Amino acid sequence: MLKPIKLANKNFLSSLDTSREELVNILEIAKAFKNKDLNIKLKDNVLGLIFDKSSTRTRVSFQVAMSRLGGNTVDLIPNTSQIGRGEPIRDTARVLSRYCDVLAIRTYKQSDLEEYAKWSSKPVINALTDLEHPCQALADYMTIKEELLDFKNVVLTFIGDGNNVANSLILCGALLGVEVRIACPKGYEPNPLVIKKAYQIYKNKDLLRITNDPINAVKGANVLYTDVWSSMGEENQKEEKDKDFIGFTIDKNLVRNADKDAIILHCLPAYRAKEITDEVFESKRSVIFDQAENRMHAQQALLSCLLS
Ligand code: CP
Ligand code: NVA
């Protein structure tokens, strides 16, 4: 019988905080939740949410996931709590982990997230940092499996900024043995440490390619994925990045160069006519809203594996 495997690591700060076996289990549990084949209750458990950056999907999907598990959430708005007034992370973490059973944190620096985890007596989840977005990657690979049934022979091409979303796609892809290609403008390559770690995991080094040529990168790809060009915290670089990313839009032409049945993913929010055209976004190939729905199932599974 399918059961959540308790994660060996206390926290989920990175896509590499699960083993391959644990990751596959999370994806199976998520699918079972989606199909209403599994009933796990974490009654009276409380998830604390701290979001230093905006969020629609991550915040709401965590709230609903926790409520489906029979637990509750507390959303700590930094501006109206002492966090915004500069109370040290180590104090906030020690206090909140006396009240809550798990914390999900969205912030800028990965080192701040790690500081929360260090001082929290309860598990800490990365709800997005500048370095990684591992909860997003869970939903992404869940969606890929749902659409393509198997990870074998899947080619995932990410076109855009080699940022948090791309970093987690690479690490999760390495654990699952999925071929990942990243096409980005020069200077926007993924984090070198992430690339290094991924190569250490991949048995076949050809399964990860970083390139500046989007047309070439989508040849034979089964999944085309993009994200915003300017991430949260980069608002002042928008003008420069809009210029640097010319030629990196997922449009009809790029899609034509991919596998004829390729699916389109986007973590959202999306800026039409920038990283993706409206035509492709709204096309039959787009499973972007299934992907968004899967955030909730994947996080419900993650919470089950961290807490049960
Ligand atoms: N994809 C994602 O994390 O969306 P939000 O910023 O709305 O949470
Ligand atoms: N790279 C984007 C992802 C948003 C979900 C950001 O960090 O803003």
Automatic annotation (TrEMBL):
GO terms for biological process: citrulline biosynthetic process; L-arginine biosynthetic process via ornithine. GO terms for cellular component: cytoplasm. Its EC number is 2.1.3.3. It is found in: Cytoplasm. The keyword Cytoplasm applies. It catalyses: carbamoyl phosphate + L-ornithine = L-citrulline + phosphate + H(+). Its main location: cytoplasm. This is Ornithine carbamoyltransferase.
